[in-house]
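quick one
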Amino acid sequence: MTKILVTGATGNIGRMVVDELLAAGADDVRALTVDPARAALPDGVEVARGFVGRPSTLPTAYANVDVLYLAPHLPTVVEACRMADEAGIGHIVDLAGPKGEHWQAVEDAVEACGVPYTHLEPGEFMANATLWARQIRAGDVVLDTCGDATNAPIAQEDVAAVAARVLLSPGEHVGRSCELTGPEALSRRQKVALLGEALGRELRYVDLPRDEAIEELAKDMGEHAAWYVDGAGLLIEYPQRAVPTVTEITGRPATTFLEWSRRNADLFRDQ
Ligand SMILES: NC(=O)c1ccc[n+]([C@@H]2O[C@H](COP(=O)([O-])OP(=O)(O)OC[C@H]3O[C@@H](n4cnc5c(N)ncnc54)[C@H](OP(=O)(O)O)[C@@H]3O)[C@@H](O)[C@H]2O)c1
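structure w/ NAP:
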């Protein structure tokens, strides 16, 4: 029997990984969480108390584990990986992001520790569209910048589904970097139009100049607004293309942005 440990088990992705594993029939899943009582994890999961950010909790959490789902936590990732090697874990499936970006340190630490691995490299999550929720709840105009900035966002459910498949058959994915995107490349303008379609409203996308966009978006993103606005220019020059990895690994189509928008329409409605 293969024992799988899911870290960050109440995180957006981690929680879905637990559900995907159970749905696929996994019968030896341990979930790591800071507060087992609050976590309310499903029956059939062994719950362990801890956090990859607190390495002292890891020897117990790692005991007898064969395959590890590693949630990204940069401050302690080197130690968490070294300890995984010491514990005899046979495979790490790490959640990172596109190569060379903020999460590169996760992949570097995983590779340095010597445990066989599979990297999951999702680009932007569709859930980031909630950045516009306040504006859409208030009216029909969405103010942003670089409306032609294009990428292929992915639903978190699809990241979790891929993670579960890999955790269940790690041998098929050793040493692989799985670039993960949604099924279509979309500009910001197109995403806003699709959100409008899901809500049954016509939304109007308006580009603001850089400084005004930062001022507007800081209402929702705080200090990250400048990073978001300046990154948009790169997505005009180098639009992200969609890749078929989700379907290749899960055998099902990746969630479209319209499907995601319909499923999450309430986030954009005044309740
Ligand atoms: N947004 C994007 O477009 C994008 C793209 C690529 C990658 N990413 C990254 O993907 C990751 C996915 O996030 P996720 O929501 O699934 O969560 P996560 O970062 O994988 O895990 C978060 C979980 O870790 C545990 N935790 C305990 N103490 C914590 C602490 N002090 N700080 C942070 N976490 C703590 C919590 O679970 P317990 O309470 O159960 O312990 C929490 O729910 C994020 O790190 C994100 O940066 C994001």
